[in-house]
Amino acid sequence: MAVKKNHLSPGLLFITLLLAGFILLWLPQRITCHLNFLFVSVFDPVLCLGRTFEAGKFRAAAEGQTVDAAEYERLWKAYQNLSAQYQALHREYEILARFRKEKPLPWAGLVLAPVSSSVRGLRHELIISRGSDHGLAPGQMVLSEKGDSVLGIVQEVSARLSRVRLLTDSSVTLEVRIRREGAELEYVGRMSGDGKTGCRIPLLSRDYDIREGDVVFAAPQPGVLETPLVVGRCVRVRPDEEHPLLWDIAVRPVEDAYAQKVVAVAVPALSLPNTP
Amino acid sequence: MRWFWFILLTLLTVLLEAGNLLNLIAFGYGQVRPSLLLILLIFAALRAEPLEAVGLSFLLGFAADLSGAVVGPNTVCWGLAGSLLCQMQGILNVRSSIYQIAVVLVSSLILMAVSHGLAVLKTEQAGVLPMRILLGRAFYTAAVVPVLWPMLERLWPFLKKPQPGRSAGIRLGHV
User: Fold this and answer.
1) I want to staple B136 with a disulfide (CB 3.0 to 4.6 A). Which of A181, A204, A247, B32 is the partner?
2) With a CB-CB cutoff of 8 Å, which residues 197-226 of chain A face chain B?
3) Residue A24: is it exposed, middle or buried by C-beta count within 10 angstroms (0-12/13-18/19+)?
């Protein structure tokens, strides 16, 4: 018995596939992102091939009177973070001296996450091997392995994988504080990635005394980041060409996110899976 | 079309595109890399039968979406572009390298810009597309055409089912 051949016209196939494409486009990103995560999780070993690291970044510190550049960077960040924490504690003390706090803030925990793969180009992203099963959620801060500088923000999560948008990505904005070493005064601004290798802080008045070399901290946010953490340094401070009364500030991140093998995610202790 | 081998080729290309191996030939602050999938799309759409061309265009678009961050924009854009290119098989003379480069360059510029716009619409995230990266990626993609196109030409007879009365790799119009 002859089987009737099914004739599908190119036009019908085109309309069907176009409709399917529009449905995929119309579906919310929180649903379709699982397809991307599935692809990454299936082909993770292949996608990891070719990730390179600068060998110098992982050298041990030299003995003696001097330290190498990596150790210097670590000490510098620790010092800046301690100074910022000291200032925050000092302000808190001044408030506490007047009245008692009603409820203490939950202390954030750190979840260490290996970096699976990275994207550099139109987007600046890392894929990390931890997800909602480990307490991660969109909006959480991603720090360097030692937890001493901010690298990016968790964008999307699946059960075991997460997508991290780096600070240099043009779609990321972060509330920051700019402070000079030894100075008490600090300025609040919003930093956004420039889509290249750094960040920009726009809309700050030229009345503010900001100079090259000033340190930029991520501002504390309740439930996300409890203390200020160093982000980078101001590498260029000049008047904005379009708005001469405002500064055009370029910031260079203190840490190369693409050189990280492991990152830490600041997770509120309440959302950690093993928290009682 | 031998779909198994074509899907395998697509998978290999997607893994190259999504992974880090292509970083070996990337340049600039934006790590500009060529889009191998896009070259495969244009090549195949200009060679395949209309029915196959429509199917493979959407397939390659979906593959490009999977290797990226947002699902949908490339499926729609590449599907439309591939189907349109298929209809222009008789008009575009892609035997000359110059024309191949020109077609890939123009298609890259349009497809990358439009799919980025659709991705921004879908995710509702304001993200700028640096012109330097867009141009760099499109020109780099066009620049590797003289290397990749002849390789695909040699590969095409294995991907396409031989048909009686037709020479491999060239679709002749009905007389």
Assistant:
1) B32
2) 197
3) buried
